[in-house]
Amino acid sequence: MTRKEQKEERRQKILMTALDLFVERGFHETKISDIASAVPMSMGLMFHYFESKEVLLLELVKLGLESSNTTSKMPPMPPELFFEKFLEQLFEFSSSSPWVFNMFVLMGQARRPGMPEEARALAMTVKTPEMTAGIIKEGQKSGVFREGYPLQLSTTFWAAVQGIMEEMAVNKSYKAPDPEWITGMLLK
Fold first, then answer.
1. CA 20 to 30 Å from 97, out of 12, 21, 130, 148?
2. Which residue ranges form the domains of the chain, and what is each CATH number?
C-alpha cells in the first residue's frame, strides 16, 4: 500500500469513527480526544487530518449530501417501481455498509438548530423530497399513486425511511421491512 493510500485509509477511519461517536453520543458530547482514542491515534496526528471537530462534521455532512443524491442516479422506470427499487437498493447496500444507517441519523441531527452553522446550512440543502415529488406527481397522473400534495406525500415517505434507518442504526437486530410496506403509503 502506498503512503497516499495509507493516508486516505486513515482519513476514512477517522471519519467513520467520528460518525459512530457523533451518532452514539451526540456531536456536542463527543470530544476530539474521544475520536482520537477510538481510532486509535494521537491527538496531534488527528489534527494533521482534521483541524477541528467541526471540520470533521462538515466532511461527514458533505459525504451525506453526496449520498442523498443517489435518487437522481436511478435509471428511468415507472413511478410505481421507482420507490420500491430505490428502497431495495438502499436496504441491500446498508446491510453491507452499516455506516449508511448512521449517516441518516447524523444528517437528521445536523439539520437541527444548535449544530455548527456551516454544517447545518449544508445539511439543509438536501432536497430528496422535492426531487421525488415530481415522480409522485407522474404516478398520480397515471392513476397509481393516491391523491394529495406530491411534496407532502414525498416528505412523508422520506420521513418513514428516515425513521426506519434510525431504528436500524440503534437496534442492530431490527431488520429492514419489506419495501412494499413503505411504498404502499403512496399507492391508491
1. 130
2. 54-183 (1.10.357)
